[in-house]
Amino acid sequence: MKGVFSAPGDYIHFKSQVPLHKITIGSKQWRYYDFGPKVVPPLICIPGTAGTADVYYKQIMSLSMKGYRVISVDIPRVWSHHEWIQAFEKFLDAVDVHHVHLYGTSLGGFLAQLFAQYRPRRVRSLILSNSFLETQSFSAAMPWSPVLSWTPSFLLKRYVLTGIRDGPHEPFIADAVDFVVSQVETLSRDDLASRLTLTVETTSVGPLLVSDSFITIMDTNDYCAIPQQLKDQIRERYPEARQAYLKTGGDFPFLSRPDEVNLHLQLHLRRVGVEARPDLVPGTPRGDSGGSPSEKNDRREDADDSQKDDIGGGASPSTEDNLPPASESTSSNDLNDQPINTASISSMSLEYLTPFLIAHAVTEKQGNILNVEAIVQLTYSGIINYLSAVVLCREIVHYVEVLSKV
Question: What does the pLDDT read at residue 224?
Answer without folding.
Answer: 85
